[in-house]
Amino acid sequence: MGLRCSVNTLHAFLFSDFLHKPVWMWLVFLAVVLFLLILDLGVFNRKDHEIGVKESLLMSVFYIGIGLLFSLWVGKILGQEKAFEYLTGFVVEKTLAMDNIFVIAMIFSYFRVPRIYQHRVLFWGILGVIVLRGIMIGVGAKLVSEFEWVLYLFAAFLIYSGVKMLFKQEDEADIGANPVLRFIRKRIRVTRDFHGHSFLIYRTNPRTGHKFLYATPLLMALIFIEIADVIFAVDSVPAVFSITTDAYVVYTSNIFAILGLRSLYFALSAVISKFHYLKYALSVVLIFIGAKIFVSEMLHLVKIPPAVSLGVTLAILAAGIVVSLVKGDKEA
């Protein structure tokens, strides 16, 4: 009885803010996402194959188009202001998640995941992201609704993250020394080689005849990609809550941005290093979003409309891309 009460309390805590919107709105969103996932694995990538740059770009344009079309639907149902908030959250999340591409590339390299199986890992990783982001956004929405000062805490964290990003030196993480990897290897049997696109396999002990379940390196890569997603969500979730406290807008903009970025990975992984100054532009965006909360909500000096916020965000990121391309050409 006690356990059932605890589960019900947790469910109410996480999802009470989500249910402020009609259930049919959530069903529409989930139906679109489910359709995209079925289309992805069941049609476009039914057979394992290496995804080239052209295919990656076409899939990305398709996903971005769906994300932008959804903003029109948000505007029609919730109003123009919510649509601009959705678009700002979509752009910020998409840009923040680009850093994740470096980490994903490192994980695939460390576990030597063949390119033919990389999309499968990223696809199943999306399912984990949908659940984990839902939990984190549910907690965040409830905290913001119950304790207004949490929003200022998010804003301060964004300013701190932005300033830290400005001065942070690039360094490569040593995945082999990661304590999570050591913990898993001590407690789970892991094969040295791949077995097609399988995450788990059974092996028979030749002496006893007993079967034992083994994880493959593909599953290890998936686990680490999910961990990376949780770490990056620590920045992205407060960022979107600083743009809007509407849980529906926060969650949908997060998921649509991530869905498209996974497809874009195969094109960006080779060229993302050229956009060196995008990191600095993103840090300025984080500082701007965090400062906006203090200026408009806490000090009541000026209310920055969502359309203006979206315009400033796009202008800063565009400047980072242009400077990266110009500086990159000169250095080359």
Describe the overall structure.
- The protein has 332 residues and is mostly helical.
- It has one domain.
- The chain has helices spanning 2-15, 23-44, 53-78, 80-110, 115-146, 149-167, 179-187, 217-241, 247-268, 278-298, 306-331; strands at 200-204, 211-215.
- It has a two-stranded antiparallel ribbon.
- A hairpin with a 6-residue loop joins β1 and β2 (211-215).
- α5 (115-146) runs antiparallel to α9.
- It is globular and about 75 Å long.
- It starts with a helix and ends with a helix.
- It is found in: Membrane.
- The chain crosses the membrane at residues 23-44, 56-74, 86-109, 121-143, 149-167, 212-234, 246-265, 277-295, 307-326.
Q: How many separate domains make up the residues?
A: 1
Measure the end-to-end span.
67 Å
Number of beta-strand segments: 2
Instruction: Tell me roughly what share of residues is in helical segments.
Output: over 70%
- Overall 3D geometry? globular
Organism: Geovibrio thiophilus
Protein name: TerC family protein
Transmembrane segments: 23-44, 56-74, 86-109, 121-143, 149-167, 212-234, 246-265, 277-295, 307-326
Membrane topology: Multi-pass membrane protein
